[in-house]
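Q: My collaborator sent me two sequences in one message, no labels, and asked for predicted structures for both. Can we handle them in order? The first one she listed is below.
A: Yes, handling them in the order given. First sequence, followed by its structure tokens:
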Amino acid sequence: MKVRRFGLKLSMVFAVTAALVATGSPAFAAHNDNSDMTLWDDNASCQAGRIAFVDYGEGAPGGGMNDDYFIVSDTCANGDGVLGRVYVNGVLIDTRYNGGGSGSSVIWDPAQVYANDVVRMDICTANGPEDYLGYPCASRTFRSVDG
């Protein structure tokens, strides 16, 4: 009788373990595509801005977990704001200006990124949301593994 109960308990442990292994890793955790790019301001001798792609994270405060968003950060008190641009598969999707001053960040969700999409993100210093020319930019391009 003891052997039978032990065998039943052991088979239950294996069944629970197999279920946890099969369902314990959500699809969004398969690969972390996070990426970022910073821009240096030679005149002010500081990091002017930063754009970051977050594959999966908290997003805007109170919004809960979110998939695929960008953060445009102004990181230098140089008198300029920063402009982020996002391209997916060679197409400009959107731009976002952050004129909030040094230390400010804007969370931005311009597009859903899918597996194998090629994402290019630019960060530029800018003097307003419509200022697209005349300021330095830095860019990073990457291919999303799992979207």
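Q: And the one she listed second?
A: Here it is, processed independently of the first:
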Amino acid sequence: MVAGDRTGESCVGELELLRCLQRGGSWSDISAAVADVWLRQFGCRSVTIVCAVAGGGISGLQYRRGDDDQFQAMAMQLSGGLSVFVSPRLFRQLFASAGVELKHCELFHWPDLLCGLVVESGDGLQPGAELRGLLESVSRSLLSAAAGRAVLLADPARMEALAEFAAGAGHEINNPLATIIGQAQLQLRGDAGMDLRQSLETIGAQAWRIRDMIGNTMLFARPPEPHVQPFRLRGLLDECAGALRQTAAAGVSVGSHCEGDPELTADRAQLGVLICHLLRNGCEALRGASRSGTVVVSGRAVEDCVELSVEDNGPGLSSAEVLRHAFDPFYSGRSAGRGLGFGLCVSWRIVRQHGGGICLENLPHGGVCCRISLPQRPPVL
């Protein structure tokens, strides 16, 4: 049976719902708004919302309609990590272990938001396709607006516009950049004095930086399809750490650690780019703060996923707003505080290309940790 027209019934309060969509809010406020939309507009019995939280844990809230038609909220005790939001099997196991009966439930599993929704239908009602799509879209928009979370809802139209810009910029800019780089290298072969040599090296390095920025923009907006193959993780982590170790500033230590040597099937080259971007981001944060420290990449297998983390003891991200927009290339404050290099945007894209999830968090003792979960095998589409 399809849910009928519920026009005229109260939902969150249209103004409150609009406020949440435009300005965001706390996790409890946002989850209550999501639950209210489903409970009132769909008439379901219960809504359970789960979300990844700092430290690799899970927060869960269940909302249920009482006999007096009032809604009751209950915090849930859940155990699991980031991979719960990447593996559909682990996602179902999470609720089964918490005693949630899934027989009459619909599951919404969103690795890009690192959260999920379980809706228990009421009175045998099922939403029509149009209503279901609308409720899902509103729920995703609301959950992406929760404060203190680094998530990104990619708009296909904006991504295509960015790709067109990058392609045009690459064509128009790369040719003169090549001339600048070539002339700088040519002059370096001559008898330039020390000051001139330093200036020429700076010119060449900054020109290469511009080319990299254009390339990274294209990689983010219009990435190539992954060329997947099976490989072992430990060797990749060691290679990436070794490469960054060669260029790290004095006093900055780069390390790697892998529990066992799990196999995964993915694009090895793209994952190498991902790990190097994150390691470089940590190294640059330490260098920018003029302090010594460590940057470590770690990996392990968790059921049918592989989890990675890149952690540093640098200055951390300057504000919750900067954290929230860490993966958004359109955010105007990307240069504020700890430099948010475009590498974070590229990292997000590579993870999503592989069906994984990624989160960024400030550590209690200072520094930043980026956590990633990837399926060990490509998802079946």
